[in-house]
Write a structure and sequence with these properties.
The complex is a heterodimer of chains A (about 90) and B (about 140). Helix content of chain A is about 50%, strand content about 0%. By secondary structure, chain A is mainly α. Chain B has about 140 residues and is an alpha+beta fold. Chain B folds into 2 domains: about 100 residues, Alpha-Beta Plaits; about 30 residues. The longest helix of chain B is centred in the C-terminal third of the chain and has 17 residues. The N and C termini of chain B lie far apart (about 75 Å). At the A-B interface, helix 5 of A face strand 2, strand 3 and strand 4 of B.
């Protein structure tokens, strides 16, 4: 019995690691969006700090391609006065 | 042969001017698009909102969304026309290659707010009535 106990524990650990998985795709890839609209301010606002800075890729969880599209969209929105440069 | 593409343009106009002289503003936009020899697909009001920062001393603006087809060499003159115009504050012209037809025909925030405001009139009135009651309790 004593020999089997550690094996059970190791099995449990494995199961836990298999079940709890982080999101493998970024929020835009999950929705399969082909482009990110600069007029869609509600989604872009979620990717900005209170001061109007763009969140890093690490913080927002975007993939590299989507982060570039987001950057482009936010900068377009800023130019049109939809989002602040600074706050 | 010059390639023709479908473009999206968002014009920014002072909201006071747009409210008082809407036809005049639309006339200017159509004139600018005509000068660019564009085939206009649609021109409509996108939204009227507070600007994130002041542009030309204005804190509120009306956005007008236009879709049109024209040659790529006509975009720069179009932007120049807008810069010379006194009524239009800014324009952003973007290619719509990756947009679907549904994206282009999506209802604008102005339309959505208009529909919601009719439904939201009653709750707002109730909230106003509730406020003085709380003051009397205190």
């Amino acid at each position: 019995m004593k020999k089997t106990a550690p094996n059970k524990n190791s099995n449990r650990k494995r199961k836990i690691t298999m079940t709890i998985r982080e999101q493998t795709q970024c929020r835009f890839c999950r929705e399969k969006k082909k482009f990110i609209d600069y007029k869609d301010i509600d989604t872009l606002c979620k990717l900005l700090t209170n001061r109007g800075k763009i969140f890093s890729r690490k913080r927002s969880g975007n993939c590299a391609g989507c982060q570039r599209k987001v950057n482009q969209a936010i900068k377009r929105a800023r130019f049109m006065g939809l989002l602040p440069f600074t706050a | 042969m010059e390639t023709k593409r479908v473009y999206e343009a968002l014009f920014l106009v002072d909201s006071a001017l747009a409210a008082s002289q809407w036809d005049h503003v639309m006339g200017i936009i159509h004139k600018i698009l005509d000068r660019a020899e564009a085939r206009v697909i649609s021109v409509r009001k996108w939204d009227e909102r507070k600007l994130a920062y002041e542009i030309a001393g204005k804190s509120r603006g009306t956005y007008i969304l236009a879709y049109f087809e024209c040659g790529s060499s006509k975009i720069r003159p179009l932007e120049r026309d807008v810069q010379l115009s006194e009524e239009i504050l800014r324009v952003l012209v973007v290619r719509t290659d990756r947009m679907t037809q549904a994206d282009m025909e999506k209802p604008t925030p102005a339309m959505v707010v208009h529909v919601d405001s009719d439904a939201a009139v009653q709750p707002a009135a109730e909230a106003v009535e509730e406020a003085p009651v709380q003051e009397t309790v205190e």
